[in-house]
From TrEMBL, chain A:
Residues 57-237 form the ABC transmembrane type-1 domain. It is a multi-pass membrane protein. Keywords: Cell membrane, Membrane, Transmembrane, Transmembrane helix, Transport. It comes from the Bacteria. The chain crosses the membrane at residues 12-36, 56-83, 95-116, 122-142, 188-207, 219-237. The keyword Transport applies. The lineage of its organism: Bacteria, Pseudomonadati, Pseudomonadota, Alphaproteobacteria, Acetobacterales. It is found in: Cell membrane. Signal peptide: none annotated. This is ABC transporter permease subunit. Belongs to the binding-protein-dependent transport system permease family.
TrEMBL record, chain B:
Residues 9-242 form the ABC transporter domain. This is ABC transporter ATP-binding protein. It holds the Pfam family ABC_tran. SUPFAM superfamilies: P-loop containing nucleoside triphosphate hydrolases. It comes from Roseomonas populi. GO terms for molecular function: ATP binding. CDD domains: ABC_NrtD_SsuB_transporters. Keywords: ATP-binding, Nucleotide-binding, Transport. The keyword Transport applies. Belongs to the ABC transporter superfamily. SMART domains: AAA. PANTHER family: ABC TRANSPORTER ATP-BINDING PROTEIN, TAURINE IMPORT ATP-BINDING PROTEIN-RELATED.
TrEMBL record, chain C:
InterPro entries: MetI-like, MetI-like_sf. Keywords: Cell membrane, Membrane, Transmembrane, Transmembrane helix, Transport. It is found in: Cell membrane. Residues 58-237 form the ABC transmembrane type-1 domain. PANTHER family: ABC TRANSPORTER PERMEASE PROTEIN HI_0355-RELATED (PTHR30151:SF20), ALKANE SULFONATE ABC TRANSPORTER-RELATED, MEMBRANE SUBUNIT (PTHR30151). It comes from the Bacteria. This is ABC transporter permease subunit. It is a multi-pass membrane protein. Belongs to the binding-protein-dependent transport system permease family. The lineage of its organism: Bacteria, Pseudomonadati, Pseudomonadota, Alphaproteobacteria, Acetobacterales.
Amino acid sequence: MDRLLRPFIRDWWGILLLLLAWQAWVVLSGLNAIVMPRPLDVVADIATNLPVYLPALGISLAAAAFGLVGGFMLGLGLGILTWASTIAAGMLTPVTVLFSSVPVVTLIPILARLFGYGPGTVVAITVIISFFPAFVFSSAGLRALPPGSADLFRVLGASRWRVLTSLALPAAMPNLAVALRIGAAHALLAAMVAEYLMGSSGLGAMFAAAKSELNTERALGASLIVAAISLTLYLLSLRVEHWARARYG
Amino acid sequence: MSGPSGAAIALHDVTRRFPLKGVPEGVLALDRVTLDVQPGEFVALLGPSGCGKSTLLRMTAGLDTPSTGTVRVGGETPAAVAARQGFGVAFQDHALLPWLTVRDNIALPFRVAGKPVNQGRIAALIALVKLTGFEEAFPRNLSGGMRQRVNIARALVLQPEVLLLDEPFGALDAVTRRHMNLELQRIWTETRTTTLLVTHAVEEALFLADRIVVMTGRPGRVAQDLPVPFARPRPVEVMREERFHEMQDSLVLALEPEAHD
Amino acid sequence: MRLARDPRVLGVLGTLVLCLAWEGIGASGLGGFTWPPLSRVLAMLADPDRWDLFGRAAGSTLASAVVGYIFGTLAGVALAMLTHFLPRLAPGADRLAAGMHAIPTVALAPVFLILLPADSTPPTLAGIGVAFLVYVAAAAGLRAASAAHRDLFQVLGAHPSARLLRLDLPAGLPSIATGLRLAVPAALIGAVIGEWFGAPRGLGVLIVNGMQNFQIVLLWSAVLLVALISLTAYLIAGAIERAVHARFR
């Protein structure tokens, strides 16, 4: 038991401390449970209202997944285009600079108005938001070749296509893994924010509704689910990243 | 200060094993090495790379501990000597702090020790290592030889009981290296600090040391303990003497026996 | 021809194309009525009658971002120093930081909304985003001193506090400066999202109001203003970063 418990506390003491502080704070401050529920109340609300939570979660996850895949393909495609053309690469540097220097999330309200309050809009927004990291990291990764390898391929008279598939794309794998990790976090965030702002459907909308009804347990339940899923996604994509580094790095 | 034996540095029956995956007893790097350095003596540890001479020096400095055996500096543990700033060290990596000027790098040991900075002492050392005029320069703007001069000055600034030098000129080109050896000889003659120098350059050891301890590798053992007969101060002409060349040849042979079989 | 391949020329060209496309799509009506031409957006930002509105909103958002930036930096550096002196705490602190970062800000907002007055949510969210980036950068920076430097300080008998002050902290400054640059957009994202969750004023409030009330030009102007503020702060942080790198490396 001790063998299991020690590593667990070593790795998770920070988050455990946070949850404990939350629970203790509510108990000690004597706040009304309606104003500020304890973590256990929130877990209980999720467990007893699964039919409410699960469809909303499904909608949000689907939007995030479609958006992530679409944005990733779009970013990688444009990354390959800039890899093939120095002029395109130079012209698209402002996009790269903007991604790292400007809060891209603030585009969501503009996109919401552009596409209208329809069901496809959330997906379109997640596509565009997750496009940025995919493009920035894939175009950087396609250029991060092992030293000397480009010369070797040129001496061998390899075609442009062969250089791309045999050299540049494998060399970009670690960067693509980073893009996936950041993109996954961005996609879920974008889906939630879009749903919240438009009040359409999914966890974000559910949270918006719970907030206006002052149903704090429900609002925090939505938060807790998103938090747990984000953390799982993050840890999973970290695994993918380690694998890509070990295999291609 | 000296221990019961009177030695400034006393390494006794020192063995060091490094752990290795799949080998439960580990790799034997040093095998029962005993070495005494007398106060005011300059001893060179000479040996091929991987013979454990740097490990011996690191143990003397308290950066490593023996698996068995004892290390005493002035009769005390290395940690105790380090705690009262009794060591001066210069390693091959000059380890100058890139954000400090020449003057502040040399003043660093004062500040680390929490002692008031003796600017007169620093100015004298800068003059001793011939860097007057470069006090406000940063290490990145200095040549390799100049950086090692700063390194030596920093090692001497607190008037250490023991000076530990690990290939201090190992990264320099041959011409600069010989020049730095002349300088070190001159500086050392003025201070006469107890010194342990690790090197694999025979000429350097012969020119600088009072005594040369030759080591062999795998596992590291003391093979020879050789007094150097040249009187001090040693002019550069010493290196052209017949006896210098004879000793140089026999030491080179001792370092690479298999190459001459 | 050489000029045409200069990345700076191409970057300016790309920015120009981006602006022209924005203007063209807006003016031709290709993007619908929710896509205003750039000139109308700039005209609104340049209109002295609007300066009071924009000035108050930008001041409020900027204040939130700055407060969050400062406290987030302090928290990140403090946590990094704690794990520096107590390395056993490092795995748990890493998880906590990664967890807080992986969880979308939207999911955290409700918790703070309930715990804190509405106008302190923006700086809090800004601070959390900043704290993570600065923690990661500072933790890596405090480990950046070379083995030779560490040996030197050990042989000199340096007290841990002397080592921190004279070696680890200065050696870590370049990494911390990089983290501070990356934290600029994070601070603004936190501030704006915090405002979306119900702050009384700020550019985020202008954005949401513009979106909900179909004040399209106002919406785009406020988003552009956020981007410009972020870009300016990012460039300043980049200049500071370069100076620190030149001095401490």
